[in-house]
C-alpha cells in the first residue's frame, strides 16, 4: 500500500507536468502571436496541430502498455516531450518559417503525449482494485488541474519577467527531472529494460488474442462512451486552449496569474470529490450502477455547459472568473463518469479501448476541429459568444448519446475477450 501511494503521487506529478508542457503555448498565446505576427486563424492552426498528433498514438500507446507495462511507455514519452519543450525556443531562432515550425513542434508534442492516458488506463486497470479505481483515477487526474495551475501561475510571472522562452524552459526541465527521479528511485534496472522480443510482442497483436473489434463495436455502450469521450475532451481542450486569450482580450487590465490560476484551483477539490463520491456510491448495495455514470456525466457535460454559456454573456471580470471556475471545475466530474466507464466496460483491454475511444480519426479529431473552429469563429465574428455556444452544443451531443445508450455492465465477458 505504501508503494501504491508513492506511485499514485508520482503519476499525479507526471500528469501535472504533462499539462505544464501542453499549456505552455496557450499561456504564451498573445506573446507568440505578437512576436510572430499571427492572427487567430493561424494561431488556431498551431493550437489544433497538437491534437492531430495526439489522436494518432492513442491506439498504439494503449496496446503497447497492455503488453509491456504502462510505466515504461509513460517514462519514454515523458523524456521525449520534456526534451522537445526545452528545445523549442532554441530552435525558433534558427528557422524563419515560424508558423510551420511551431505547428510541426506541436504536432510532435501531440504524438508523444498521446500515449499517456491510454497507458495510465492500462496501468490502473491492471493494478488497482475496482472499488478504488474512480478515486485513484480522479486523484491522478487532478494533475491536469495542478499542471495548469502551476504553469498558469509560475508561467504568467515568468512570461512577464523573462519572456515566453522561459515558460518552455521551466516546463521542460521539470519534466526531465521527474523522469530522472522516477527511474532512479522507483524502478530497478531490470524494470527499465525492455527485451526486444517483448517489445515486438507489444507492437503486434497475435492472431489468437487479436481484439475482435467488429463484435466489440456492435455494442451500443462502446459507441456511447466513444462519442461522449470525444465530445467532453474536445470542449475541455477548447476551453484550455482559448480561455487565457479570452480573459486577456476581454479584460486587458486583469492579471494573468489570476485567470490562469483560479479556475484550475477550483477544479482540484471538485475532481477529488467526484472520485470519492463515485467510489462511495459504487460501494453501496442499494445504489443502481446504471444511474451513477449518467449522474456524473450530467454534471460534467450538462451543468458545466450552462456556466460556459454564462461566461460568454458577462462583462464583469469577477463573474467571468466565477463562471469559468464553475465550468472547468464541474467538467472534472467526467473523470468519474466516462473515464471510469471505459475500464468497467472492458477491463481486459482497457488501455487499447481507451486509445480506440480517444482516437481522433473516428469523429474528425480529439479537439482538432473544435480548437481550430473556435479560432475561426473569433476571427470571423469578432465575438467570444460563438465559442461558448460551440462548447455547449458539442457537450450536449455527447451527453445525450451517453444518456441514451450508455451502460455500466461489462461487455467483454465472452471467452474471446477474457484471453486478452
Automatic annotation (TrEMBL):
The keyword Transport applies. It is found in: Cytoplasmic vesicle, Secretory vesicle, Chromaffin granule membrane; Lysosome membrane. One of its GO terms (molecular function) is purine nucleotide uniporter activity. InterPro entries: MFS, MFS_dom, MFS_Na/Anion_cotransporter, MFS_trans_sf, SLC17A9-like, Sugar_transporter_CS. SUPFAM superfamilies: MFS general substrate transporter. One of its GO terms (cellular component) is chromaffin granule membrane. GO terms for biological process: ATP export; purine-containing compound transmembrane transport. Voltage-gated ATP nucleotide uniporter that can also transport the purine nucleotides ADP and GTP. Uses the membrane potential as the driving force to control ATP accumulation in lysosomes and secretory vesicles. By controlling ATP storage in lysosomes, regulates ATP-dependent proteins of these organelles. Also indirectly regulates the exocytosis of ATP through its import into lysosomes in astrocytes and secretory vesicles such as adrenal chromaffin granules, mucin granules and synaptic vesicles. This is Voltage-gated purine nucleotide uniporter SLC17A9. It comes from Dicaeum eximium.
Amino acid at each position: 500500500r505504501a508503494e501504491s501511494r508513492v506511485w499514485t503521487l508520482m503519476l499525479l506529478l507526471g500528469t501535472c507536468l504533462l499539462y505544464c508542457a501542453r499549456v505552455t503555448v496557450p499561456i504564451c498565446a498573445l506573446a507568440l502571436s505578437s512576436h510572430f505576427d499571427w492572427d487567430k486563424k493561424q494561431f488556431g492552426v498551431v493550437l489544433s496541430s497538437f491534437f492531430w498528433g495526439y489522436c494518432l498514438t492513442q491506439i498504439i500507446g494503449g496496446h503497447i502498455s497492455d503488453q509491456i507495462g504502462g510505466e515504461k511507455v509513460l517514462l519514454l514519452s515523458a523524456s521525449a516531450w520534456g526534451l522537445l519543450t526545452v528545445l523549442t525556443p532554441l530552435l525558433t531562432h534558427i528557422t524563419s518559417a515560424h508558423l510551420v515550425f511551431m505547428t510541426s513542434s506541436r504536432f510532435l508534442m501531440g504524438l508523444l503525449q498521446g500515449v499517456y492516458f491510454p497507458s495510465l488506463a492500462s496501468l490502473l486497470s491492471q493494478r488497482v482494485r475496482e472499488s478504488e479505481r474512480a478515486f485513484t483515477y480522479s486523484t491522478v487526474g487532478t494533475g491536469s488541474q495542478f499542471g495548469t495551475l502551476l504553469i498558469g501561475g509560475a508561467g504568467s510571472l515568468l512570461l512577464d519577467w523573462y519572456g515566453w522562452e522561459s515558460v518552455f524552459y521551466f516546463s521542460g526541465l521539470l519534466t526531465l527531472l521527474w523522469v530522472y527521479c522516477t527511474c532512479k528511485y522507483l524502478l530497478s534496472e531490470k524494470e527499465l529494460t525492455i527485451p526486444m522480443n517483448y517489445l515486438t510482442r507489444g507492437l503486434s497483436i497475435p492472431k489468437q488474442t487479436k481484439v475482435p473489434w467488429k463484435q466489440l463495436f456492435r455494442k451500443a455502450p462502446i459507441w456511447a462512451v466513444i462519442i461522449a469521450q470525444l465530445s467532453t475532451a474536445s470542449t475541455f481542450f477548447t476551453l484550455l486552449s482559448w480561455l487565457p486569450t479570452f480573459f486577456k482580450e476581454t479584460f486587458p487590465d486583469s492579471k494573468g496569474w489570476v485567470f490562469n490560476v483560479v479556475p484550475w484551483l477550483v477544479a482540484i477539490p471538485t475532481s477529488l470529490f467526484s472520485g470519492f463520491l463515485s467510489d462511495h456510491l459504487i460501494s453501496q448495495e442499494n445504489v443502481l450502477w446504471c444511474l451513477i455514470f449518467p449522474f456524473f456525466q450530467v454534471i460534467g457535460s450538462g451543468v458545466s455547459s450552462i456556466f460556459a454559456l454564462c461566461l460568454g454573456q458577462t462583462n464583469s471580470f469577477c463573474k467571468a472568473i466565477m463562471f469559468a471556475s464553475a465550468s472547468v471545475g464541474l467538467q472534472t466530474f467526467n473523470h468519474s463518469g466516462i473515464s471510469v466507464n471505459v475500464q468497467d466496460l472492458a477491463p481486459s483491454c482497457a488501455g487499447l479501448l481507451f486509445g480506440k475511444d480517444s482516437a481522433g480519426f473516428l469523429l474528425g479529431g480529439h479537439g482538432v476541429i473544435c480548437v481550430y473552429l473556435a479560432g475561426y469563429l473569433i476571427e470571423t465574428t469578432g465575438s467570444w459568444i460563438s465559442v461558448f455556444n460551440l462548447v455547449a452544443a458539442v457537450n450536449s451531443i455527447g451527453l445525450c448519446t451517453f444518456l441514451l445508450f450508455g451502460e455500466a455492465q461489462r461487455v467483454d465477458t465472452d471467452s474471446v475477450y477474457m484471453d486478452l
